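From the shared-data thread, chain only:
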Amino acid sequence: MFLLVGPTAVGKSEIAVEVARRCDAEIVGSDAFQVYEGLEVLTARPGAEVRAKVPHHLIDEIPLGERFDVARYRELALARIQEIEGRGKRALVVGGTGLYVRALTHGLSELPEGDAGLRAELETLTLAELQEKYAALDPRGIERIDRQNRRRLVRAIEVTLLAGKPFSSLRADWSGDRIAATASGVVLERDREDLYARIDARVRRMFEQGVIEEVRRADAGATAGQAIGYAEIRAHLAGEMSVEECVTAIQQRTRRYAKRQLTWLRRENIFYTINLTHIPQSEVADVIAHQFVAGGPVENHGQTCS
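Structure, as tokens:
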């Protein structure tokens, strides 16, 4: 298995297509929100023109109202990879959702089934109350979770209470059919100032491309509604913040998310890192394609093993 991963706005989509074309590969998405139908602008999903160049899987497939989680992602992704390889093609996994990447390469630990009553009780708590409750139950976990993500906080508290042990300790116990030993790939990154400038510019482009109307028309469920920017734009539509305040809030939240993505991905020792700030983009696809086909270390092009 070969993976091309990196934080949001780093430039994965265009490079992935060029790598796939060189290697006779098809792309399997690994993004928690691009998997949904709709919200193309909000999630910066590869456009139809880009997707027409090579087949893409798990992009724009799940209805907005459906719940979607890491276990379902892993099941679907492995099935697509098997199907692609069964046709004599290569599969290139592309995305930035660290939890999905980890689950794909290491499997999942066994977690308790949900409890509808407990979940309903937790759903009545405010975000601040959920943060406080989880911090008390799992001091280590609260430092690693997205504290602004209600859904993840509710699930983390639920699992902690049902399992009788911290959620973070369970998440550390990845089980299943580990394939990390045979997986390899590349993390794309940029210098912080470069990446943050790209994030800020992308958010402004979203508004120029009509993201407010896109969100106005959308009827996202609990999972899809966690996409960065959805809540902020809904707040703007409700008259709770101006457009400029909305832009700033999304930029800040996206920068924080990118930082967490890199933290996740850099922990994986199956990846080499390529800093796009210091290597001409015209060379990147050839460098990655070489490793993809060879299955070995990348030659020295300014990248380092992460």
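Confidence is low (pLDDT under 50) at residues 296-306.
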